[in-house]
């Protein structure tokens, strides 16, 4: 790859198939761009609904059209158009997609994916690990398949340890159990992991909970893939990656993928391709329209004086939670930029006190260009839900965090932020204005602020080195490409 040699004239054609949520689309579309720049033909398969939203963002379609060998395709998700497709509808989304997508996906593989644009047949699949049917159909069609897990490697490993958690009595959770009790059976994390830090699905009171069975099935399926790709990095999660490697065929930690994409652009001479004809240099993959007025607002603020607040693309908030967070931010005394999605407040709109008081010290945006915001010198703290994409972007930017995790892998990620990487404060299981105020002040100017900033700057430097030519993520990408091509060649009659 580093030599710039391209393979578009050969039959290598990879289908990349994400689960239809923003947090899954973002890293997998980055991978599609990376592979296309590396010389492999790529088809990115989205849903109709998300495809339209993606291309409605200014410049995104033009940028993706400029990627050599990359084409976008979409299929229905089985839901009515007015379905909100949020976190509360996750079970409905999975059921509808499991019923609708498999025959369309099978047709795409059986036809080889070839159509009027002259693309060669699909010869390899990289599918989201949440798509249970993807590996069944690929095996049936004789097409090699790799899994992509969009959660942290640590969360993946915790899911793998669920049988042991049940065997040792950590799960199911009993009424009144001690959430701060250490968990010893998730190997590699014994010195810091507590019951409350396990992924939220582990908080069940029933070991036969359908969500637990679903996760166990996904984990068991991991051995059926040619390998598992993680948007993670050796330097960040080496303590669990070493254990995962003993359970799956091959692992490819190639993150942070947004940084790797930049490095591949440089190594292939693609930088500047987006510089003319109205094509922006931004690598946004947002399904939401970004409010760029927030960048002008940040320009007027002093260095490291602003708290950036975002809880991602699907986390819902109640009014009481919103008000506690709001008062905690206001009472901290710092300016803040807060992303409040139109669908975020589950029991009504933004309370009047928030709407009326935002001019005092805060800026509310429906969506923001997060990578640019985190890279702005005015931002001194990131109040986050600890979603994995957001965490990687915060690490890349070197911004210390206040973690308020909500669901799934966010709970274990926030513990890594505070106790392993030591680049932030974890306030999980609380939503109290006094706690929020104290945590923000601690990160911005408390006794440990200097240490957290130094640790964040160090991890940012390491992340940037890992994606450069010769770095661990770059080498893992080269190995992934070699193994994709090898799997195609070995499957060709």
From TrEMBL:
<dbReference type="GO" id="GO:0080043">
    <property type="term" value="F:quercetin 3-O-glucosyltransferase activity"/>
</dbReference>
<dbReference type="InterPro" id="IPR035595">
    <property type="entry name" value="UDP_glycos_trans_CS"/>
</dbReference>
<comment type="similarity">
    <text>Belongs to the UDP-glycosyltransferase family.</text>
</comment>
<keyword id="KW-0328">Glycosyltransferase</keyword>
<protein>
    <recommendedName>
        <fullName>Glycosyltransferase</fullName>
        <ecNumber>2.4.1.-</ecNumber>
    </recommendedName>
</protein>
<dbReference type="GO" id="GO:0080044">
    <property type="term" value="F:quercetin 7-O-glucosyltransferase activity"/>
</dbReference>
<dbReference type="Pfam" id="PF00201">
    <property type="entry name" value="UDPGT"/>
</dbReference>
<keyword id="KW-0808">Transferase</keyword>
<dbReference type="InterPro" id="IPR002213">
    <property type="entry name" value="UDP_glucos_trans"/>
</dbReference>
């Amino acid at each position: 790859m580093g030599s710039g040699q391209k393979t578009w004239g050969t039959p290598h054609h990879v289908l990349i198939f994400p689960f239809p949520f923003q947090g899954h689309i973002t890293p997998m579309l980055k991978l599609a761009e990376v592979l296309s720049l590396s010389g492999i033909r790529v088809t990115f398969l989205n849903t109709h609904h998300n495809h339209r939203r993606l291309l409605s963002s200014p410049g995104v379609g033009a940028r993706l059209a400029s990627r050599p060998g990359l084409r976008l395709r979409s299929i229905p998700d089985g839901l009515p158009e007015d379905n909100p497709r949020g976190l509360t509808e996750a079970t409905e989304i999975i059921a509808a997609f499991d019923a609708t997508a498999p025959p369309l996906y099978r047709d795409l593989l059986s036809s080889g994916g070839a159509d009027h644009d002259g693309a060669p047949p699909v010869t390899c699949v990289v599918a989201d690990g949440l798509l249970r049917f993807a590996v069944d159909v690929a095996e049936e069609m004789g097409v090699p398949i790799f899994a992509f897990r969009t959660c942290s490697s640590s969360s993946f490993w915790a899911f793998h340890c669920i049988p042991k958690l049940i065997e040792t009595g950590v799960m199911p959770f009993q009424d009144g159990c001690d959430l701060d009790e250490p968990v010893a059976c998730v190997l590699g994390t014994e010195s810091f992991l507590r019951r409350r830090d396990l992924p939220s699905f582990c908080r069940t009171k029933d070991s036969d909970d359908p969500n637990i069975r679903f996760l166990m099935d996904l984990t068991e399926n991991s051995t059926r893939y040619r390998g598992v790709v993680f948007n993670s990095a050796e330097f960040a999660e080496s303590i669990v990656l070493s254990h995962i490697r003993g359970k799956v065929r091959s692992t490819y930690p190639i993150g942070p993928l947004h940084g790797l994409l930049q490095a591949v652009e440089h190594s292939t001479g693609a930088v500047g391709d987006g510089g003319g004809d109205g094509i922006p240099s931004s690598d946004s993959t947002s399904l939401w329209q970004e409010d760029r007025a927030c960048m002008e607002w940040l320009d007027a603020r002093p260095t490291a004086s602003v708290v950036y607040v975002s809880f991602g693309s699907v986390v819902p908030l109640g009014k009481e939670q919103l008000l506690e967070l709001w008062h905690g931010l206001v009472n901290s005394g710092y300016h803040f930029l807060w992303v409040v999605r139109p669908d975020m407040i589950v029991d009504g709109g933004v309370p009047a006190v928030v709407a009326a008081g935002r001019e005092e010290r805060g800026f509310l945006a429906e969506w923001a260009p997060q990578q640019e915001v985190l890279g702005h010198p005015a931002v001194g703290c990131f109040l986050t839900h600890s979603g994995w994409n957001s965490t990687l972007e915060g690490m890349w930017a070197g911004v210390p965090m206040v973690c308020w995790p909500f669901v799934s892998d966010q709970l274990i990620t926030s513990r890594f932020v505070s106790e392993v990487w030591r680049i932030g404060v974890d306030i999980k299981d609380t939503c109290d204005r006094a706690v929020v105020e104290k945590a923000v002040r601690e990160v911005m100017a408390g006794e440990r602020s200097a240490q957290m900033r130094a640790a964040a700057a160090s991890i940012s430097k390491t992340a940037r080195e890992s994606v450069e030519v010769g770095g661990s993520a770059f080498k893992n990408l080269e190995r992934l490409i070699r193994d994709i091509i090898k799997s195609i060649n070995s499957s060709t009659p």
